[in-house]
Amino acid sequence: MRLTFMHCTRLASSPSSSLTIMSYPRLTTEQMLRKDQKTIYRQGTRVAVSAIYMDLETFLQRADLLADLSAFCQAHSYDALVAMTIFFSTQNEPVRQLAIFCPHVVLRMTICGVLERSQSPPLDLTPLLSTHPNLQAYFQGNTQVSRKKLLPLLHEALSAYLDSMHIPTGQPETGSVSREQGDKDLDRAGDSLISGLSQDEEDPPLPPTPVNSLVDECPLDRGLPKLSAEAIFEKCCQISLSQATAASSSNK
Question: What band does 166 get if pLDDT is binned at 50, 70 and 90?
Answer without folding.
Answer: confident
